[in-house]
Amino acid sequence: MSRWEVKIAGFGGQGIILAGYLLGKAAAVYDRRHATMVQSYGPEARGSACASQVIIADEPIYYPYVTEPDVLIAMSQEAYTRFAAEVKPGGLLLIERDLVALDTDVARPDGDGVRLHAISATKIAEELGHRIVANIVMLGFLCALAPIVSSSGMKEALRSSLPKSAIELNLLAFEAGYERGLQVGYNLAGNPSQRREGL
Predict the structure, then answer these.
(1) What are 26-75's pLDDT values in tens digits?
(2) Strands 49-57, 115-119: parallel, antiparallel or unpaired by DSSP?
């Protein structure tokens, strides 16, 4: 696929905006593709709803808003409830297993060919030492499941964007999510060999 529309949603304090920034930076700076990001917040900061909208394409992007996401990452119940029905048929829906209860009235994960995968990103992050890297676990999970950006590009984006003291933990979080994604064994392009795995 030459164009991806990705929405990452959750609540303040989960690193939703940072996740969108890193995804876009990996694509634009290290994979040499076009990328845009739009962010939104609730009326409060920490604890309120927030979302990142990222578009990645081989051609110039003239409208930066996600209208029908190929991928939705829902890291809270509100994010799932508000946005799950927007995922296009054949798209990918990733949820934080421990924070999202599925509601078939909101979305039919396989009814429209939407592929749903759950991961306990927060639990994995806590096992690594800090729940704040749950967003990076989720990015690793995404990179293993869909050829949106290369894993090498994402790692470089992490290294160049974070304080030195945080890089090692975030790389471990990315690898943990990536390994979980490989275990799922599903690739949106339909062929595992087509993943943009990088280094």
Answers:
(1) 999 999 999 999 998 765 455 678 999 999 999 999 999 999 999 999 99
(2) unpaired
User: In this structure, are residues 41 and 66 in contact, taking their beta carbons and an 8 Å threshold?
Assistant: no
Distance, in Å, from the CA atom of 26 to the CA atom of 45, rounded to the nearest integer, reads 26
3-194 — its CATH code? Answer: 3.40.920.10
Q: What gap in Å lies between CA 97 and CA 57, rounded to an integer?
A: 29
Whether the per-residue pLDDT at 96 is higher than 70: the answer is yes
What are the tokens at 49? 């709803």
DSSP label of 27: I
If residue 92 lies in a helix (H) or strand (E), which one and from where to where?
Answer: strand 92-96
In this predicted model, what pLDDT tens digit does every residue of 116-166 receive, in sequence order? 999 999 999 999 999 999 999 999 999 999 999 999 999 999 999 999 999
Q: How distant is the alpha carbon of residue 180 from its chain centre?
A: 14
* C-alpha closest to that of 84 among 106, 51, 56: 106
CB atoms inside a 10 Å sphere around CB 57 = 16
Any idea where the domains of the chain sit in the sequence?
Answer: 3-194
Query: Which alpha helices (DSSP H) does 58-133 contain, by range?
Result: 77-83, 121-128
